[in-house]
# Entry
Amino acid sequence: MSNNVVNENPIYRIAAELSNNNASVLQEVSECLSNTKKYFSEHEEEYGERCVTDGEGEAVLQWLGMVDILQKNDYVCERDWEDELEDFLYFMRELEGVKRNGLALEEDWFDEDGEITDWCRIIDGKWESQNICVAAIDIGSDSYVMFPCNINVLQKISQYVGETNYRIARACEM
# Structure
């Protein structure tokens, strides 16, 4: 796959937006897109943790590859639907977008017995004045792959996602 084709791929464009054009992230996403089978074999352990085999379609391997690349670089965090509030807040605070934008996350905003979608709805209300929400990447599991996202960027990447069979939306709507 040529560089122009890779750069036009919706997965590449999503990764570019979410990583703020981080060169090392985009290099790895390019490798995943341009030679997916080779990328899979070099990252079989990470795919195996998701119970994904090389029998999955190329599109699935590329989508999950992008998610894993973004996660290991702290642009997204993946949390189980039954996550504890303390863990949820810890991993959200570690995200590059939270740090870069100086976004507050105060424990007393939340009901400890709530669920991730409830917590994300609260965060959306608190971050609304900064035009930022918590968005999530659907990976077809019962976990949430979340990241802070400017509302305008979310609209933009939603258009890119429309070219795939996947979904990115506000986390409170997942």
Q: What stands out?
A: The mean pLDDT is 93.
